[in-house]
């Protein structure tokens, strides 16, 4: 409450005018046009009526109709903190029923577009919400083409666009409503998770709570992991295992590991507890889709192991898990083929980092990914400077000191799917453990959980992607929704309860929907346990029902042996 009073007082000071300090009252939506706040200027301010809202096309992202929208004030703004900056910002403010809370939505991949879907979801919950394109339009097929030769745009994407968005949004909301937000939250997944951690580390005073899923917050080393999947499979044709092999790989992994958690259900609760042996897939005769050749097994093992230093042999970054590979996301991101005619999407992301950001030469479709060296190029990102900072430090948010978040009393809920083919789940555990060991918590996981909690999602994919078996429907607007809006089933409600009432979440019950469609009902539910807890079958009851499971203490660490 003290935090809210201080925040409200500072915002009120920004909107008071006159010698007596009296408030001018709310400013009508249309009258916000041409207003400049926090370095951003309002280009348009439109009162949007309730009903369907037609969100505009954004490059290759088609226009979309968002149904069931409440009336809101749509503010479109622009910020130019440098001569090479062109940061776009959108803020949506409910016309009625505002819950006096602000939510900022992170971006995906190399950004260049607004997150209209998550914005609509939050608006329907009563939030005022903002999103940014981070200063450029979506580039295709080289998603990071805008970065080559444009250091100020790298700074905008790295952190500056979101800080300006935060400051501008809070002020324009206060100007329109004549009141401040009681609570401010950040919602981010993938690159948006990186942005959330960047805000927490650089500007811990800005937000009261964070929901972060599958965070790409160590972009430099993660890019090595992405390129590793590309080099492993596509350096020579003999190593390419392709999507036709994925059913066999998944079946073999489940045959070896599924029963280890006490239930044979297509979900491995803790992949760390079982070391998959890909050699079981070796073809003994003619090659078929049911087996792998020796070069293909070597390729798969490299994908699962992660990139290693060519000089020391040490792992640069964790690899991926084999138990849920037969999904559209694994096809797109790892095995290929992917969008835009590239070999795989992970490679597309990694090529953009090393080609556009680090080397500055560009990363077109014919980019030679075989030249990327996990010693030289990873180090180059650390040594190459923009002003007084390295490219890696401008972009990466892998810091371990969360003292600012802790002292503010802010809270973080971090979630990650064990089947994520973009951000390796073992990295997320590795990172969380590094924060626990950091100066804010001094290796006291109990103290860390007072501020920062991790929930692993067995069988969950990236952004709760399609086809994954896990119960990842927990209400994150980037993934599957929750059909029950309470703190036990819905991650936003859980964060609100923790921040606003002090009720920390120990369990969030996730849902897997029939055909990934909530309208078709729940196929299975499963408790997601606060790390290092694990769901364990009680020994009786429906294995598709979360009530048949309990959370038990599990081991700590990304690797158990």
The largest sheet, given as strand count, sense and whether it forms a barrel, is: 10 strands, mixed
Class derived from helix and strand content: alpha/beta
Count every helix, treating DSSP H or I runs of 4 or more residues as helices.
Answer: 15
What is the topology, as strand order, of the major beta sheet? 1-2-5-6-8-7-9-10-13-14
**Range of helix content:** 25-40%
Question: What kind of oligomer do you see?
Answer: single chain
Residue-averaged pLDDT, rounded? Answer: 94
Any idea what the shape is?
Answer: globular
Q: Beta-strand level of the residues, as a percent range? A: 15-25%
Total beta strands: 18
Uncertain regions: pLDDT < 50 for 5+ in a row? 1-22
Radius of gyration from CA coordinates: 23 Å
Intertermini distance: 46 Å
Short précis:
The chain is an alpha/beta fold. Helix content is 30%, strand content 18%.
Structure explained in plain terms:
There is one protein chain. With 561 residues, the chain is an alpha/beta fold. Among the domains are: 181 residues, no CATH class; 174 residues, no CATH class. The chain is built from 15 helices and 18 strands. Strands 1-2-5-6-8-7-9-10-13-14 form a ten-stranded mixed beta sheet, with helices on both faces. A two-stranded antiparallel ribbon has the order 3-4. Strands 11-12 form a two-stranded antiparallel ribbon. The longest helix has 27 residues. The radius of gyration is 23 Å and the shape is globular.
